[in-house]
Specification:
alpha/beta, Phosphorylase Kinase, domain 1, Transferase(Phosphotransferase), domain 1, 13-stranded mixed sheet, six-stranded mixed sheet, transmembrane helix, Prot_kinase_dom
Length: 760
């Protein structure tokens, strides 16, 4: 009996060992297949720096620590998440569907072969391939990823159609195809994507109508199709009860405004051709925080309830044909911080809640017929003219087109006669045209001209013109007691206006050769720069010259006053309770990055050379960052001369147009190590750069407050993007979009770590 039991026990053990023998090779073979696919993808992507770690990493790729540029996650020895972010984020002004040297992958790249290899990762749930220079039409085989929940192919060179078969990927939660070159119509079969939460295909060249099928996806939370060429009607979206963000800026949509769901938080519909009245239904949008309807053809009086929505903080109705009178007893919501009703046809008085603004609320109202600030208002007759919006514009547009055609015909006939008779040379015509009184540097910029034509001709300034008497009264004749200090350019004073609000006044000398006409054009351009993280320009005063006087000797720029000091001073604070934690610093850095990204890409032409440094980042009472000293290169071509006088001892500041990223890198560096970074400059960074690579090195160089309040992953992301920003080679520096993405990712990682720590 004992011997038989032993034999049975031995036989059972033998079967177990034998099963292990067969099982282990299968597992290794499966892992090897996925590893081989990943290594082959690296070859197709032409060995991007984000995959360099694969050159020497010998372990299981599933255990590779995630970074901002590479993340691989696995379940049961199968790759379920692949995120690769490259450095090919710069876009050429044109793209013809072929490889572009140094911006796309080479001519040898085959997008079909690439995706065939990619489909070998059959268990993928998250796929993100961003800024890798991938070019070509997106293959239909993308639908082979039947388990995919997140797809992000942003900032590549994909063109042609968005494959209709994407609608069969029913597990998708997020589809992001931003910053590509898709240039046909959107598929109208997305209603089968019943789990879709985020749809973002902004900054492409999409044509045709808004896909009506989107109105059937009840799970949608974000629709972002801005900066395309969509046209036609925008259907009602009130059935999307979970929608939070609707971003359709910069399209050609031309219907009346649709009804919106009560859940919406952000609505961005600017620079379209919407007409008619603003629906009264908008008063039901109790979650709405940010509403931008500017640069459309909206008419009649805006609903007064818009201004008093409980969560509204940003309301932009500028550049429409809104008319009528706002109620004297208009109520403004407690969170309303920015209102722009400028360039409409509003008349009557300005309601008290808009007129008597505090430091926390900015109100723009120039270009109407209001009975306030007559210097920046039209006469009443202007606002009594037809303001029926789009229809009247259509009639006017047809009339103008007819006139242009007649003029062109006459010009052609006249030119033929001149050529036949051999009268005037073309040089004479050139001389005649040169007398037009528009600054040559603005005429040379075609993008500025096209933007100006789109906005329409405006003869009144968009920000207030102060008299020198007002500013002298506000500053007690520029008394020394009101002197704040020397800014990057010019002297800074604190003033108090008649309405009790405080302002910051920058006074800078002007060359006698400066043209007043050119200066006013540049001031108008500067006044269009509006962003929550920019110090608002409230007005200006040109002292010492009249309309045509070229001997003006001083310019005063009037800004909102930001009371809580600058970022540099807060970084110098070491006392317990006052030193900025890492999460606070990240929030400030993200705000500044958003402002600079807006200056680079949100205005035409882009605004560069923005004198970025921690002393130019001001903090309000809520620690919200506001960038000052931006756009000075617009005002004067002598910026480098002025900066040389006031910044001789600041080696970490550059002012070339392509060096904003570099200078922001030093703001990042100073956030990590403290004010010593800017005092010692680039040499200090290069000497200490290696210290970032080890824990001991970080303990030696990183600010102790940062070390005690950060997660190591969040810190590593910030160090990585800092190193890239301060790269000596400008071609290796990231775009501000990449900088912003990395900072937001670092903040998200930090927030998760903080939440986990609290739960423990």
């Amino acid at each position: 009996m004992f011997q038989g039991g032993t034999m049975r026990h031995f036989f059972s053990l033998y079967l177990v060992v034998l099963s292990w023998f067969f099982f282990i090779p299968n597992t290794q073979e499966l892992q090897a297949a996925h590893t081989q696919a990943l290594l082959q993808l690296r070859v197709y992507l032409e060995y991007p720096s984000s995959l360099q770690i694969l050159d020497y990493y010998q372990g299981d790729l599933c255990w590779l620590s995630p970074s901002a540029n590479l993340s691989i996650k696995c379940e049961d020895d199968e790759v379920t998440e692949l995120k690769i972010t490259g450095e090919k984020s710069l876009k050429p002004p044109w793209f013809n569907g072929y490889a572009v040297p140094n911006q796309t992958l080479s001519m040898n790249f085959s997008i079909d072969s690439f995706f065939i290899t990619l489909t070998r990762l059959t268990s993928l749930r998250v796929l993100s391939l961003v800024s890798l220079g991938i070019w070509g039409p997106l293959p239909d085989k993308i639908h082979s990823f039947t388990l995919l929940q997140v797809l992000d192919l942003s900032s590549n060179f994909l063109f042609g159609d968005i494959p209709p078969k994407i609608s069969t990927m029913v597990k998708l939660h997020a589809l992001t195809l931003d910053d590509n070159y898709f240039n046909t119509t959107m598929p109208d079969s997305f209603d089968s994507l019943s789990n879709l939460n985020i749809l973002s295909v902004k900054s492409n060249g999409l044509k045709g109508s808004f896909p009506s099928s989107l109105g059937k996806i009840k799970t949608l939370e974000v629709i972002s199709l801005s900066h395309n060429e969509l046209s036609g009607d925008l259907p009602g979206l009130s059935s999307l009860t979970g929608l939070h963000v609707l971003d359709l800026r910069e399209n050609h949509l031309e219907s009346e405004l649709p009804l919106l769901p009560k859940s919406v938080v952000t609505v961005l519909l600017s620079n379209n051709s919407f007409s008619g009245e603003i629906p009264n239904q908008f008063h039901e949008l109790n979650q709405l925080q940010h509403l931008d309807l500017s640069s459309n053809y909206l008419s009649k009086t805006p609903p007064s309830t818009l201004f008093s929505l409980p969560e509204i903080s940003y309301l932009n109705l500028a550049s429409n044909v809104l008319s009528g009178t706002l109620p004297d007893k208009l109520n403004c919501g407690s969170k309303l911080g920015f209102v722009d009703i400028s360039r409409n046809k509003l008349s009557g008085g300005l309601p008290s809640c808009l007129a008597n603004t505090s430091d926390s609320r900015v109100v723009r109202y120039a270009g109407n017929c209001l009975s306030v600030d007559s210097q920046n208002q039209y006469r009443g007759s202007y606002c009594k003219e037809s303001s029926s919006g789009w229809k009247s514009f259509k009639t006017w547009e047809v009339a103008v087109v007819m006139v242009i055609i007649v003029v062109l015909v006459l010009v052609l006939l006249g030119s033929s006669v001149f050529l036949w008779k051999k009268y005037h040379s073309t040089k004479t015509t050139g001389q005649d045209n040169s007398s037009i009184g528009v600054p040559s540097e603005i005429l040379a910029n075609a993008r500025f001209i096209s933007q100006t034509m789109k906005l329409g001709t405006q003869t009144i300034p968009t920000c207030r013109q102060f008299s020198i008497e007002e500013l002298k009264e506000a500053t007690k004749n520029f008394d020394l007691s009101t002197y704040i200090g020397q800014g990057s350019i010019g002297k800074m004073y604190k003033g108090k206006l008649d309405n009790g609000s405080y302002v910051a006044i920058r006074s800078l000398p002007l060359s006698k050769k400066c043209s007043i006409q050119t200066l006013r054009a540049k001031l108008d351009l500067l006044s269009k720069l509006h962003h929550p993280n920019l110090v608002s320009l409230l007005g200006h005063c040109i002292d010492g010259g009249g309309q045509d006087d070229s001997n003006s000797h001083k310019l005063h720029l009037v800004y909102e006053y930001v009371p809580n000091g600058n970022y540099h001073a807060h970084l110098s604070e070491f006392s317990v309770g006052k030193a900025l934690k890492w999460s606070d610093r990240l929030a400030i850095l993200i705000g500044v990055a958003k402002a600079v990204h807006f200056l680079h890409t949100g205005v035409i032409p882009g605004c560069f050379s923005n004198l970025l440094k921690t002393k130019n980042v001001l903090l309000d009472e809520h620690c919200i960052p506001k960038l000052s000293d931006y756009g000075m290169s617009i005002i004067t071509e002598e910026i480098e001369k002025f900066e040389a006088k006031g910044e001789k001892s600041k080696p970490c500041l550059r002012t070339k147009a392509d060096d904003d990223v570099y200078n922001f890198g030093f703001i990042l560096f100073e956030s990590l190590v403290g004010p010593i970074a800017c005092e010692k400059g680039e040499t200090f960074f290069l000497n200490e750069k290696a210290s970032f690579g080890s824990q001991d090195g970080r303990r030696k160089i990183v600010d102790p407050t940062v070390l005690t309040t950060c997660s190591q992953e969040s810190l590593s992301i910030a160090i990585s993007i800092t190193t890239k920003c301060i790269s000596p080679e400008s071609s290796f520096r990231p775009s501000f979009e990449d900088v912003l993405w990395n900072l937001q990712y670092a903040a998200q990682v930090q927030a998760t770590a903080d939440a986990d720590q609290k739960s423990d």
